[in-house]
Amino acid sequence: MKRFSFLRSADLVTIIFVTALSIVEMIFASRIGQYLLFVPLNIILCLFIYFSSRYTHRHGIRKNIVITLLRDWYLIPCILFIYTQASSITHPIHGRDYDSILIAIDRGMFGLNPTQWISQFAHPFVTEILQIAYSSYYLFFVFLFYELYRRTDHHDFQNGALLVVYGFYLSYIGYLIFPAIGPRFTLHNFFATNSELPGLFLTNYLREIINTGGGILPGTSDPAALVHRDAFPSGHTQLTLVAMYIAFMYKTKIRWWLFAGGSLLIISTVYMRYHYVIDVLFGMLFFLLTIWSGKRINEWWNKGINKV
């Protein structure tokens, strides 16, 4: 490990996952038209992580504040970039979606479709609040890690970063293995969402932002064909729980705000028709897996580089 002791555990798992993703894209190159774009960008990302990490390790954080900030915060755009890859290539690889299995599991557990059942309780005010909560997903991590970053010791910031990025990558593995688009397309009329689940002021705008981020551009005639396959497991559930865990573990000032907003977000995943209940349940299982294995990876790497 001596040769790579300047890398953090979050850097390590990012490089490993991006490398594995590139290998998958090259194996299925005949089915993935974007591989000629994704693979070179992945190589550039890995080189950036390597050289920026080595630079700040050798010269100190004050040598170049721009490189330091990029090195510390690159994981935010990196997660979004890797999400786009993992969730968009899975359908071409499989050639099908597995929503029918998820629907059957939900019906087997409840005797009905939960997203259809819960629609009877829909109200514009509730919809507005839950859409805002769902749309605040990435902001949770920005606020959480901004507070941790302001602390003199960045140890908590770095340990928390490992759990978050590792959790994201685990959820992306789920997308790659089990592509699904969610009940808003399979059990409901996607084009009727605004009329069936109306909000008050921001709901429609936030939906458009989420749709665009998920691969659905405005005016798309067949959104189900273009949307990213990111329903199983519910990453929103998994990573929101991870964020809550970190917030309470490190006693942040926003922990109770995050708990309230995160709880609403998890409820919104089904209410807003983004996920089946089984997606949410597996999101909770993936959360437990993230904490259990992520801590061990972090301890193993930090212990190893401290010995050199």
The radius of gyration computed from the alpha-carbon positions, rounded to a whole number of angstroms, is 20 Å
Main sheet?
none
Supply the number of helical segments. 16
Strand percentage lies at: under 5%
Class from secondary-structure proportions: mainly alpha
Average per-residue pLDDT, rounded, comes to 93
Outline the low-pLDDT stretches. Answer: none
Which outline best applies?
A: globular
SSE succession:
HHHHHHHHHHHHHHHH
The helicity comes to over 70%
Structure, described:
It is built from 16 helices and no strands. The protein is globular, with a radius of gyration of 20 Å. Helix content is 72%, strand content 0%. The chain is mostly helical and 308 residues long. It has one domain (2-303). The longest helix has 30 residues, at 277-306. It starts with 8 loop residues before the first helix and ends with a helix.
Compose a concise summary of this entry:
The chain has 308 residues and is mainly α. The protein is built from 16 helices and no strands.
Quick tags:
16 helices; 308 residues; globular; mainly alpha
Task: Give the SSE map.
Blueprint (H helix, E strand, L loop, with lengths): L8 H19 L7 H25 L5 H9 L1 H20 L4 H12 L3 H4 L6 H12 L1 H13 L5 H23 L5 H4 L6 H4 L6 H11 L9 H4 L8 H15 L5 H17 L5 H30 L2
Helix pairs in contact: 1-2, 1-9, 2-3, 4-9, 7-12, 7-15, 8-14, 9-14, 9-16, 14-15, 14-16
